[in-house]
Model the fold of this input.
Amino acid sequence: MQDVTRWGIDALHRAIRGLKCKTAVHICYGYGIKANIDWKQSLGEEWRQYEQIFPALAKSRIDQVSLECIHSHVPPELMALLKGKDVLVGVIDVASDKVETPAEVAATIRTALKYVPKNRLIACTNCGMAPMNRELALAKLQALAAGAALARKKFGRATAKAKPRRAAKPSRAKRARR
Ligand SMILES: [Zn+2]
Done:
């Protein structure tokens, strides 16, 4: 864990050197493969590793932090340590074949909203979906979208002004068609 502050943050800064886009780091407890699931069972009831990493990340120049939340043993209040960062909150469990309901997704978002301001919260999957069956992955992404929409309806939209996105210029081909 000490490696995070010793050289980890410097390594992230080196990785983003020269980038003009938003930068994100994903803190990974692993895909839903057996080796990971077994390892997670050895971590105990409460996973507090983030407690050491988040304050260092909060001070870093990385814009966004992605982490797992649903069915995670990480205490959700640790997200409050990521002040000033966009938080990509995992609301879809990639280690389970059960498709979340929109209500479940919205409930996870509600939990995260206690610690992350609305304009900083981006609903996301816990991790990548590469080992997952394609249809299942698509169903889970649909649940993510439906749950995020439900959360916006229930808890309101972000009110703080987000940075305006640069409008994409229509491509030459599209302009020619007009
Ligand atoms: Zn991951």
Q: What stands out?
A: The chain has a mean pLDDT of 88. The CA atoms of residues 3 and 45 lie 24 Å apart. Residues 26, 28, 127 surround zinc ion (CB under 6 Å). Strands lie at 24-26, 64-68, 86-92, 121-125.
